Fold each of these.
Amino acid sequence: MGALQRLLLFGGVSLRGCGGACTLLGGSRLLVCRRQLSGAESETLKQRRTQIMSRGLPKQKPIEGVKQVIVVASGKGGVGKSTTAVNLALALAANDSSKAIGLLDVDVYGPSIPKMMNLKGSPELSQSNLMRPLLNYGIACMSMGFLVEETAPVVWRGLMVMSAIEKLLRQVDWGQLDYLVVDMPPGTGDVQLSVSQNIPISGAVIVSTPQDIALMDAHKGAEMFRKVHVPAKAYLRIATEVVRRLPPPPE
């Protein structure tokens, strides 16, 4: 360890070159030496640790034809994430009709986009053997719900799910899109990490309801995106039913 030398003592052997604080563990059987790192050494250690952690991570590769990717995520399910993703895509299209918008549903176990966008059927294949998105309301849509029966559960293990995500990311003919809105599954699992590490993301929207439990998980989602260097904004969605059930204000 360079200038820092450590010697383990077994039954009374002397200690040399500690260079810092020494702690006796387990009677006289073991001595552990610690040395305070200087600022430069600490920074070097951090850089080295970051370098090691980055090994083996996939290199981000843009989706062909897509300029900007916006992901919509949540810590918990049932907070209005898919509704927000659909509304965001429609709002982007309504704000500027010259922009081409796409909507990708990567929630493999519970796809909602086919129902919300009023779409049914299987995608056609292009000459390049790529899936063509289904179109409605001027939005190009792709979802796992187009590839399985509407009532059929997706009972897959992790490797099959990751293979499906890879196909949804890389084997869809989007043409030229200005914005692709990605409806993520709830939580901070393999899918979220894989999407964040495989494609460049312009920003993330974290959707939550006002309950403490939902907000706690929303903070975890925002922290995950921070760790993978994706700018994230929290969006608090208060359901209409919640508002209606609030007691009237005191007079």
Amino acid sequence: MTDASSSDIVGEKQTFKIRRLEITDKRNGYMELLSQLTVTGSVTDDEFDKRFKEITSYGDDHLICVIEEESSGKIAATGSVMIEKKFLRNCGKVGHVEDVVVDTEFRGKRLGKRVVEFLTDHCRAMGCYKVILDCGVEKKEFYEKCGLVNKGIQMSKYF
């Protein structure tokens, strides 16, 4: 396991801690936060627990981080990364960043940038040769501030 331990971020009269997702975070607003990004559906506690255990079984190859506002315990931001193992580049690895979102209540505190840095640091520690993500045009400037560059277009087919 790489060292993706928690660290404190101090904001205006608020202290935030970045750490891995914990099974108890569903009751701290994790699913509500994800719903600010896209459709989440009605995930029961049992479904959450089962998926959490599945994801954590992948170890460092699938990391979900959260930023917790410490005084309330509320999840203020999140993001995830999956490590793809390839044959290219001498059996290299690529990090795929997904699901980066900051709660509307906490935006403007650079938490999104901190999530992206945490995830890219994890990828570097895992030996990835690059980190990629897909985003809408309206998020391009944010990700450029995080050190990423536009390398093409995204294609999708939804089922």
Amino acid sequence: MDANVKSGSKFPLNHREVVGASMVLLGFVAGLLGVYLTMPSSDYSFLKLPRTLDDLQILRDGLEGYTSDYTLQVLIGYCMVYIFMQTFMIPGTVFMSLLAGALFGVLKGVALVVFTATAGASSCYFLSKMIGRPIVFCLWPEKLSFFQAQVARRRERLFNYMLFLRVTPTLPNTFINFASPIVDVPYHTFFLGTVIGLIPAAFVTVRAGIALGELQSIGDLYDFQSIATLFFIGVISVTPTLLGDNQS
């Protein structure tokens, strides 16, 4: 493990890895360009990744007029941007989740967020399989050691542990996505833990997006009741793992 960390500190991506990651990036760019070219001629200066709630409200106001007439293009564009952000660990997906609620309502919004977040997490997982080892050893050596030890300890009930991680903020989702293949979390376990574990937080965020104008800060998303509920679900999900540890 220590040897891997030392070798990873040089950030050694070979030519094949760089080309592979570049091809993934170009694929997203080509897809977004294709969506843009199918839209009517107009002023799209409002189209940018939101970094604040004000940016998000401008984006919501700009897209509302297109959502009904160009639903397919808006959906495809939304999905590609969300998956792109998840794949390359770009901050700000919480704003995209809020946007889903503002544009599509709770049920459609939750379904859309869970789908895109799971697809983006999966894309990040497989990208990490290709280029992730030197990057994760370089950026998060101590966190990776902790994660690897926990995965090895809970191997028999790994799904419950992954579900716990998704429901609670124990580890950042971006780190989980990128580090999971490095510590040998099977994809089927990663996928199921992601698609199920993201539902509670997606519901909270999407529901808040409906009343976007009432939000003063991102901190308003998670009141005490929401946080307590998420932790309660997380405790339930990890209980079989803890019981197994005690029995062994």
